[in-house]
Design goal:
Elements lengths: L1 H26 L13 E7 L4 E6 L17 E7 L1 H4 L12 H7 L4 E5 L7 H11 L9 E5 L17 H11 L3 H16 L18 H21 L3 E6 L4 E2 L4 E2 L3 H17 L2 E4 H6 L24 H15 L1
Parallel strand pairs: 3-4, 3-5, 5-6, 6-9
Antiparallel strand pairs: 1-2, 7-8
Helix pairs in contact: 3-10, 4-7, 7-8
């Protein structure tokens, strides 16, 4: 029995060492050997199919002699998000443009590139950022990270109550072993692309609020890597919360349980990493008296409380522009 135990243990450590060596030769990041021992290190599988990985630290960066974007002749801005950032037409009756497009129109100094994609979450955003940050000769001065609406259903793994204990054990291994991180990502890819398993269909039968914590963890994993990359290249990073449909008479915005959880989490990330959090809802609430009540700022599609009309995108762009500049 002891021989089997030690044989299994040696095999595990051998596989783990091989994984770390292989990832080191892909990333050339010496921190892969410290993962699990240094609890501040985070390992992220950016894109398994392209063998793209990242190892970074939670520790804050201290940036000195940083040139502010306000003093530059040209201000390069990259935006990330879903359909509310890419731009949305169905149910609006006409082309709505997008708030990034309208933001660029407000200042000739702004040069904007919009990486947003309808239906996508921060899983897609971090891949786009990771893929483009080294390719583009001119790095952005500002990143506007507007992932929110699609974060609720983006976690790779959803678990029933009876699996909680096993999940905790797996999470412990995952936090200390690169092999288990790769295993988890591989199983997820096989499930989606080979067996075509759609976890979202299962959510109809269960309480989706149980998975909000998992969704927030997934969002934080992606956002923390984005913040780390931004610090590496001296980029101003903003978490952006786009306002939802509002009532001028009551001064209330559309809310749901997940949005409240996400917003509280965004504030915590802002404080933890000393970055800006643009709560456009809070900013807009103080300007309600200046809003034209005769304009329709949101699409007319029933049940749609997030997609904006042309006027809505203009309003969002103005709120964001005034907050940054």
């Amino acid at each position: 029995m002891k021989k089997i135990f030690f044989s299994t243990l040696i095999t595990f450590f051998s596989i783990e060492l091989i994984c770390r060596i292989l990832i080191f030769f892909i990333t050339f990041n010496i921190n892969v050997f410290s993962y699990g021992f240094d609890k501040t290190l985070i390992f992220k599988v950016v894109d398994l199919s392209k063998l793209k990985f990242a190892v970074y630290t939670e520790k804050k960066f201290i940036l000195e002699n940083k040139e502010t974007s306000k003093n530059k002749k040209q201000i390069v801005i990259w935006t990330f998000g879903g359909s509310t950032t890419e731009g949305y037409e169905p149910g609006c009756g006409h082309t709505t443009s997008s708030w990034p497009n309208e933001l660029e129109k407000l200042d000739k100094k702004i040069q904007l590139k919009n990486f947003a994609k309808a239906g996508s979450s921060s899983n897609f955003a971090i891949q786009e950022l990771f893929n483009n940050i080294d390719k583009q000769k001119e790095k952005p001065d500002i990143i506007l990270w507007a992932n929110k609406v699609n974060e609720e259903f983006n976690s790779n793994t959803f678990n029933l109550d009876k699996m909680i204990f096993l999940k905790r054990v797996f999470k412990t291994l995952e936090l200390n072993s690169l092999f288990f991180k790769l295993y988890d990502e591989f199983i997820y890819k096989v499930k989606i692309h080979v067996f075509k398993v759609d976890d979202k269909k299962k959510l109809v039968e269960i309480d989706i609020s149980k998975f909000h914590e998992e969704s927030i963890k997934n969002y934080n994993s992606n956002t923390e890597l984005a913040i780390s990359l931004s610090n590496k290249f001296n980029i101003d990073f903003y978490i952006v919360s786009l306002f939802t449909r509002f009532d001028l008479k009551t001064k209330k915005f559309f809310e749901n349980q997940f949005y409240t959880l996400w917003e509280n989490n965004a504030k915590l990330l802002s404080n933890k990493y000393d970055i800006k959090y643009l709560d456009t809802e809070e900013i807009l609430r103080s300007k309600f008296n200046n809003i034209n009540p005769n304009l329709n700022y949101f699409c007319n599609k029933a049940g749609d409380n997030v997609h904006q009309t042309y006027e809505g995108n203009q309003l969002t762009a103005r709120v964001i522009y005034d907050s940054i500049f």
